[in-house]
Design goal:
heterodimer; A: 412 residues; alpha/beta; Rossmann fold; 2 domains; 4-stranded parallel sheet; 14 strands; globular; B: 291 residues; mainly alpha; ABC transporter involved in vitamin B12 uptake, BtuC; two-stranded antiparallel ribbon
Chain lengths: 412, 291
């Protein structure tokens, strides 16, 4: 038998932990090299499931665009890689622009990684369509001229769910206990939630910051029980929400739960009978509109499962980019920025068309709330939720849910 | 009242420690007998979870909890026979590399077979909700889990200490050359130990699937904590690992109670302190072949 000592064991543990953070080799997607687009999205870690869907949505969009003759007669060539973490995301973005000849950067779900890619885009004066990260700060104090944001920001998610809570009399003089993801996205979401509570006389009596790699929530659940709130409010991110939902159902605490962020794929992972409460979403595959249904059918045929909201957002973002290049007949950064800043309208498979707000580059669009379907009513394992009506109402301007100029310090 | 809350966290931490124990004990056993640091241990934990979901679909929760660990233990035989066995006498770095590589292959294989998205899993209705004992709140499911861990622990202890199988294994840990001199081949014992070790990891995965996220990287998540437990407990010590697992659970719970931000760091601080005072771990034995 071999010689082996404790020091080697310690080194091995450290090496393993270190190597794990490096992630796995990139998956490259490309065909005829024409218009090159750099695509980054997390494929590992607590947002990995969302990134995997985003990649599928991107692929469907690129396939459709190329089959229809490409952009200005040129095929799209997308390099898609795992963004891993904020530092790696920035390095890869820089490499894609500098060495691989990417004309545009697209993608991301992690707000911290999106922030570093935004800085790379600005430094290189190249366009970045930031698809899936929701932190207000990205389109607020950290906004820049080269980045456009297609997902709804945190404030919109809070306001969408907030409207439903106000309607049900669940805010005024109620005690809330928060659980918040401990990184830029969670902090940002908590800030938006605090603004909402302050404006509507809700009381946030406690809040716990939770690291993104925590897999056991039981000590926090015991703290919630000690605090005896009226409602529990989740500001968690990615698969943290899945863990919370499962373990909350496990302990069966009596306080209703609401949340300001939950992605479809993470809701599906919670399992039947575990999901409860009211949550916001930017899109769901049961949306009853012809364009949306066609997308869902095509996606399902190709991938054997329906798209989640990140597949959808990647899909429409690539369609928006292709439309912009086709109509301007250009891949020039300034020309494209000018086209978006005209507040051009885009069909994003929803009832109302969307546009980028010129002063903060946020895609202004409808949002929805959802609640779990009662047991036994789901048609299949994807059909877990009931989608609420689109907010804002058809007679209100779409901007009402977004941060106002006074609330948003963005200056481009 | 404050004391009551604290006690509740302590008890909850003990329950969590029981779950760490399932994974760490196998890791420690395989290391003690074979001298191999099994970086692929987390992969067997993940496979246990995925197998249990598949089996639950056909046979229900109860059978899945039994069949899944057994199925993974069978994989453990192949793992020992065709991979580990070649590395007992080789440079330790080689076994580290091969098990690390295997962990990556297993994770990607899971990704290919079951997809990157997490799979849904639920607690069976009879174990849902919580029970109150005095003023303490317990998750019904975790109480059941703790009972299972206790039974497994007792069985493993009896196996190692009260059977002839256990005597050979314990002798093999200390003096493999003497065991060989007595004409006993250690290899079949090693196969059995690896089976037992990865089977326990799979059991951890199967039982934790309904309350955690079943996704391809779940193995990598758990193995770091398992290593911390093994290092704190000390090599070759059954009770060392038991105490360390419970300690890690309790320290984490208490830290989250008083200083939530330090919750995850607390177990590494604990490991640091233990190593400062007792470099061999809490109950680590002096194992000649490792000195």
């Amino acid at each position: 038998m071999t010689r082996f000592n404790r020091r080697t064991l310690l080194k091995a543990s450290a090496a393993f932990a270190g190597a794990s953070t490096l992630g796995f080799p990139a998956i490259s997607y490309g065909q005829a090299e024409k218009i090159k687009i750099g695509h980054l999205t997390p494929l590992t870690g607590f947002l990995g499931a969302l990134g995997a869907y985003a990649q599928l949505g991107m692929r469907l969009a690129v396939e459709e665009i190329n089959q229809a003759g490409g952009v200005m007669g040129r095929q799209l060539d997308v390099m898609s890689e795992d963004s891993v973490n904020p530092a790696t995301a920035a390095t890869k973005a820089q490499r894609m622009l500098e060495q691989d000849g990417a004309l545009v950067l697209m993608g991301e779900t992690n707000s911290a990684s999106a922030l570093t890619i935004m800085q790379v885009a600005a430094r290189n004066k190249k366009l970045f369509i930031q698809t899936g990260a929701r932190s207000d700060a990205l389109r607020g104090k950290n906004c820049n001229r080269y980045t456009f944001h297609t997902d709804i920001p945190n404030t919109v998610m809070v306001n969408a769910v907030g409207k439903a809570l106000l309607r049900d009399n669940m805010v005024k003089d109620k005690k809330f206990f928060g659980l918040t993801a401990d990184y830029i996205f969670g902090h940002d979401l908590l800030a938006a939630a605090k603004r909402f509570f302050a404006a509507n006389q809700g009381n946030l009596i406690g809040d716990e910051l939770i690291a993104t790699d925590v897999t056991d929530f039981s000590p926090y659940l015991l703290k919630i029980r000690q605090a005896k709130p009226d409602l529990v409010c989740s500001n968690l991110a990615g698969n943290q929400v899945t863990t919370l939902i499962k373990q909350y159902a496990e302990f069966g605490l009596p306080y209703p739960i609401v949340g300001f962020n939950l992605n479809t794929a993470d809701a599906w992972a919670a399992g039947e009978g575990n999901l409860a409460g009211i949550w916001p979403t930017v899109w769901y595959h049961t949306l009853d509109l012809p364009a949306s249904k066609t997308f869902v059918d095509n996606f399902t045929k190709k991938n054997g499962k329906p798209p989640d909201n990140h597949a959808w957002i990647e899909y429409i973002a690539f369609k928006i980019m292709a439309q912009a290049m086709n109509e301007t007949k250009s891949t020039d950064t300034d020309t494209l920025i000018g086209y978006f800043e005209k507040e051009t309208q885009f069909d994003i498979l929803k009832a109302r068309k969307a546009y980028f707000r010129a002063w903060d580059h946020q895609l202004v669009q409808e949002a929805y709330t959802f609640s779990p379907k009662p047991k036994g009513q789901a048609k299949d394992k994807w059909d877990l939720i009931t989608l609420g009506a689109a907010v804002p109402n058809a007679n209100e301007p779409m901007e009402v849910l977004n941060p106002t100029k006074e609330q948003n310090p963005c200056s481009l | 009242m404050q004391f009551g809350f604290l006690l509740e966290q302590v008890v909850n931490g003990l329950v969590l420690g029981g779950y760490y124990l399932l994974i760490a004990l196998g890791l420690s056993l395989i290391f003690s007998v074979g001298g191999v640091v099994n970086l692929a241990h987390g992969a067997f934990y993940a496979l246990g979870a995925y197998f249990s979901l598949e089996i639950t679909n056909y046979l229900g929760f109860g059978p899945a909890m039994v069949i899944s660990p057994i199925a993974v233990a069978m994989l453990g035989i192949l793992f020992e026979r065709y991979i580990l066995r070649r590395f007992y006498t080789a440079d330790p770095i080689l076994s580290l590399l091969v098990t690390f590589g295997l962990a990556m292959v297993a994770e990607q294989a899971i990704r290919i077979i079951w997809g990157a998205s997490p799979l849904p899993a639920s607690i069976p209705p009879m174990f849902r909700g919580s029970i109150m004992i005095g003023d303490f709140l317990f998750s019904r499911y975790r109480v059941m889990l703790l009972a299972v861990v206790a039974v497994v622990l007792l069985a493993v202890w009896l196996l190692l200490n009260k059977t002839s199988f256990g005597r050979v294994v314990r002798a093999g840990i200390q003096r493999p050359d003497m065991v060989a001199a007595l004409g006993i081949r250690l290899q079949p014992y090693m196969t059995a130990v690896v089976m037992l070790g990865v089977g326990m990891a799979a059991m951890g995965g199967a039982f934790f699937a309904p309350i955690t996220i079943v996704h391809p990287a779940m193995g990598a998540e758990i193995i770091t904590v398992a290593f911390v437990v093994v290092v704190i407990g000390g090599l070759g010590s059954f009770w060392g690992v038991v105490i360390a697992a419970l300690l890690v659970g309790v320290v984490r719970g208490i830290t989250i109670h008083f200083l939530p931000a330090a919750g995850e760091a607390s177990i590494y601080v604990l490991m640091f302190l233990v190593l400062l005072v007792r470099p061999r771990g809490l109950l680590g034995e002096r194992i000649e072949k490792f000195e």
